[in-house]
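hey so i finaly got around to running the thing on Calcium-binding protein from Streptomyces rimosus subsp. rimosus. pasting the sequence first so u can double check i didnt mess up the copy paste, my clipboard has been acting weird all day
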Amino acid sequence: MAAYDTLDRKFSILFDWFDRTEDGWLTREDFEQMAAMFTALVRPGDTENRTAMRDAFMRWWDVLRDAGGVDSEGRVARRTFIDLMRTQVTEPKTFEHVVLAIVDALMSALDTDGSGELTADEYVRMYDALGVDPATSQPAFRRLDRDGSGAISHAEFRTAIEEFYLSPDPEAPGNWLLGSPLAAG
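ok and heres what it spat out for the 3d tokens, dont ask me to read them lol
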């Protein structure tokens, strides 16, 4: 039961972040707005990463729709979203083609110097642009920089994403991904 409680809380936090229209439902418009927020971080002319992120967000919406999660008004309720995150989106093949596709394109887009890493400033700026308070993304960075190098590698970022979406452990560093420490809750 505790595993589900932790996953429920994380997916509920994600629901709130995705609810761009703040109406208590997720719609295709919310996913389009999330895609627009993420693609706004991409350099002009980087159509490959922009397209990859947008397509992945739309695949995410399609997974919810195809699993029967969308009601007759084109909306997904919080409980339905949480249930489909557990049973559909986190299924390994889907997770790779949806969530990790966004992560990979985002890292590629932001890694303008080819270092394969995000510095603390880059990380905080990125999350600020995505609507996450820098007061929470700064301590999150320290937790996600597992090797203490002062940068988050692509592998460290992927690990954090996997922990946030897949780990039932309330103490996992990846739970800080959106600046929402679950261990305290």
